Amino acid sequence: MKNKILLTFPGDVTNTPIAYDLVKKYDLRINILRASINYNMKGSLLMDVEGTPENMENAIKYLQDEGINADFIHPIIKIDHDTCVDCGLCTSVCVSGALILSPDDFALEFLQDKCVGCNLCINVCPTKSISI
Q1: Exposed (0-12), middle (13-18) or buried (19+): which is 18, by Cβ within 10 Å?
Q2: Are the CB atoms for 75 and 117 separated by under 8 Å?
C-alpha cells in the first residue's frame, strides 16, 4: 500500500522525530517530497509512505495521538487536450517528471504516479489547460 500523505503539525511537535518513528516503529518506507517549518515552528511534511495497511493505520493513529494532522493526498491534475498546445512549459517546472512530452509525437503526457501535487504546472500553463 502506497500513499501520499501531508502532515501538518504544531510547533511543540517540531522536534519530535516523526519520520524516524514511522520507519522504526511502524516499518513504513517513506520518501520526503517537501518539508517546511514557518516562523511559529508550525510545520508541514509531504511524503510518499509505503507499508502494510495495518502498519499504515497504526501509524496514522500514532500521528493523531501526537497532535499531527495527516491528510491523504491524491494529486490529480486534469489536462484539457482540446486547448493544450503541447508547448512544454509545464514540463519545465515539473520537478518530479510527472509531465513529459512524448518522444514520438511531442504530445503532453501526465504520469500520475510521479505527481507530488505541487501544482506549479497550473500557474505556468499559457492556455490554462491544466486544472485540479
Answers
A1: buried
A2: yes
Q: What is the pLDDT of residue 51?
A: 95
- The domain 2-73 is placed in CATH, from the list 3.40.50.1370, 3.30.428.10, 3.40.50.300, 3.30.70.260, at 3.30.70.260
Mean pLDDT for all residues in the chain: 90
Q: Is 51 helix (H, G, I), strand (E, B) or coil?
A: coil
Cα 25 to Cα 108: distance, rounded to the nearest angstrom:
41
What integer is the mean pLDDT of 77-96?
93
Percentage of the chain exceeding pLDDT 90: 54
The residues near 39 (Cβ < 8 Å, ≥ 6 apart) are none
